[in-house]
Amino acid sequence: MNPRGIGAQTAGDDVAALRTATALVVLAQSTYRTLQTNTAGGGATAVPLVRDLLAAAVVELGDARSALTAATTGAGGRAQTAPDPAYGPVVDAALPTVRTPADVVGLVLTLEDVLAQTLVTDAAGLSTPALRALALRVGSESAARKATLLMVNSLLSAGRADLVVAPPDLASLPGGIGTVGFPDTRFPTAKAAPPEEGN
Amino acid sequence: MGFVLSRRRVLLGSAAGLLGVGALAACSDDPPAGTPSASPGSPAPTPTTSARVPYVGDQRGVALCAATSALAASLYSGAVLAAGDGRLGQVPGVVTTFLSGAGAQHTEHAAAWNALLTAAGAPAVTGTPLTVESDRRAALGRAAAPTDLLALAVDVEAMTGGTVAARAAEFTDPGAAALAATLAPVSAMHGATAAFLLGRPTGATPSAAGAPLGLDALTS
Questions:
Q1: ipTM, two decimals
Q2: Superfamily holding A11-180
Q3: For a FRET experiment, which of A94, A146, A155, B196 has its CA 20 to 30 Å from that of A176?
Q4: Do B189 and A146 touch, CB atoms closer than 8 A?
Q5: Could you tell me which chain B residue has the CA closest to the CA of A5?
């Protein structure tokens, strides 16, 4: 087993990575909140289960933001309160085009994927066990939301909004729903935001 | 930019270097099997009778993760068998597809952990040498309905993901840390799938059987 430490990351690197992760969380939470006010996300044409997912995500991301902010200041950095500058404009451009529950799910799915991939990368690179544990906990929460969104997205894309209910009619669900939520044996990291992106 | 390269190296380069080609092949990014096709006879418990292996340092945590992933895979194989023998009634295809797919990924995870051990000159973990093994198999034996299998899966994924995450924070080996970081979220996705199928799309709370395992749970 390689006896070296797990990375050459410094406290300054930690702060940059934590601030970038926080910026993605800020953007994701803001996007979820905005979508709650959209007709297709929280209004007349919303799917009730999707509405519940949005509400739960807002709470979870709020907790994540608090934890990441505490970690940032604990590492000697300034709290990040701004949304991610790379994906913020993407969201701004996409929001006016959201018309359907599928649009809602598709937009937050993109954000959750980038957030989770960023935190998974951080979980292997941050300099202390406590920071790595935090990144992996928050990243796993994001991955779990991604899995659920993938299932919902699959059903909505197939025109089966009637199956997006809790509890589901297991006998009616397509078999493929059983695996569509975990497409990768190892969680990918290619889309991880570079640490300086939101610093 | 240097840091970006460093992050990528940690997750890709060093993992390849430490795990070797075999480990990466054993843990590909291919989607899981969509139908139950893997070795229906494989879930039979494999008692560990060998002498305790003197794993050192990170190796013990890697061995724990290997054994935990193997137990998850074995339980799911057993669940697929139970789903097919009629005692649970008609088990929906989506449930067996989930069990087969998640089990296949856990099998690959166990292989990747073991490849890390063998690359370091340590023996691979054989069977499922864990103190909780008999309890978990007994829980599977008590399943009386398809939803019981899903509830079991919620516990299995919490146990597996929590165990790997706890070790991830402590590993000093870059390859082990990178592997753990990319596998724990996959368990979270399995757990989310089971929760969704159970009718708890915002998350299901595991039972005590979902607690992470400590190093003392490893019996080999």
A1: 0.95
A2: Ferritin, core subunit, four-helix bundle (1.20.1260.10)
A3: A94
A4: yes
A5: B172
